[in-house]
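W.,

You were right to be curious about this one. When I first looked at the sequence I had no strong expectations either way, so I just let the prediction run and decided to look at it fresh. Below is the sequence, 525 residues in total, followed by the output.
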Amino acid sequence: MSEATVGAQRGMARRGFLAGAGAAAVTGTALTGTARAAGTRAQSGAGTGPLALTHVTVIDGSGAPPAPDMTVVVEKGRITGLAPSARTRLRPGTRTVDLTGKYLIPGLIEAHTHSDGPETVVPALYALTGVTTVREMRGQPVHHEWREKIRSGALLGPRWVVGSPIVDGTPSLWAADVGPTIEVRDAAEARRAVRRVKREGADFVKVYSRLSREAYFAIADEARRQGIPHLGHCPDTVGIAEASAIGHRTIEHLHALLLATSRHEKEIRRRLAAVRIDPRDPSSLSRYHSWFQQVHPLEWRAVQGYDRDRADALFRSLAADGTAVVPTLSVHRTLELPDEVPSRADEWKYLPAWQVESWPDQLAALTGGRTPEQDRQIRRIFEHRLRLVSELHSTGVRLAAGTDTGTGYLVPGFALHDELALLVAAGLTPAEALRAATRDAAHTLGLPSVGTVARGQAADLLVLDADPLRDIRNTRRIHGVVVDGRWIPPQERRRLLAAVEAAAAQTPPPEEGATMTGCGCGGHP
């Protein structure tokens, strides 16, 4: 490995390619009063009276055709009325917002995040981009703190489903530089881990790739006993059909599916079992770089042996079991098509400049060392992932939209809009992609009160200037948002985004030796 690569990897450990390392403790004052100004969980709607959004085209997330010229009435954080505007009689004192020519959809759900960064930046970015629910895939105390502040009305942000720390085998792909990872060696340790994360308040157990069969099945059994879901990576030692049959709620990423749909699966599993990581290596990203180098040839072998009949049988079993897939095409694209990542994007201004400026060198270090032939193969692997998404959907497997935000080049909230475009590129219609980030994601996360526009549902809504069913990229054309019942109109939204930008600009780099967080999930089957 060259000195440049070693230096870049040390930089990653300091600053964090997979998230804004060390920044979570930074608060600052730029968004002081944001919750009071914009309204959030417990206080939203309190004392404000009913709100009517009138003359708007409603795309309700259920798959029903768009309903033009509708009025949506919101009160105390809930939708209390939904009917054609011509037939709606409003109570005296109802505030009205005329949305003629606009489109209203459910608030979006981001099913795979690793949120890290200033409290004054990250939670608000989700809400202000219309992402009103997130699922945190590596829970830490700060995420529980944010959730409680949002619920109390002290912080603007989304609903937060918070998972456990990563539970992995030993040695894990994660070294100590990322903070706590729970490594388990056997069934007894696995069961203790489940009981521990439940006590700590996790909403689910996040399982990872290096778990042994013994440990994984013990986690599944103990999670069932404790009444807590288990989900995440399908371990290298376990078949997807096996995992699905015992209640693995969601399969994250498309790596394990690549293996399970290949006629070379047995051969690849033998070779995968021989992959080694150095437990003495103190750098998680160095471990991942090594992992990439060893695993990409196995993924290419899997693609060469793709078996459509095998895939069809597996996907039908997933659909029958109710196991969902979160494809995270965004992170696959970043790590597998690094030559196509943008050189700049307007939304980068909402993150600290030092973090954004570090991305190119860090990505080069993480994906470096590939030959032109390997580049060609990895591009083909990405194209095959798109095909898998299309076939999963056509076979009836529920998809939930998630990005792996926390990885470089993925900005909280904004990244989910790009993920929707990638789902369409994979073959879904815009309406189907929207459902993956609304109704279907809500079902996947076990949240029946969000994900659709209907009476009784939570008032998490996104108002757009253009029709997303004509062009999915129109989800970025945001007019305003409703966050748990509180309307944030265009001018207020612009002001709050400007405050986020200012807070990001005031965030100092982490101190030398600060740890990173994130997933790194793009690196293995």
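Here's what jumped out at me. The longest strand covers residues 67-75. And, maybe more interesting for your project: Residues 1-16, 19-47, 513-525 have pLDDT under 50 and may be disordered.

Coffee later to discuss?

I.
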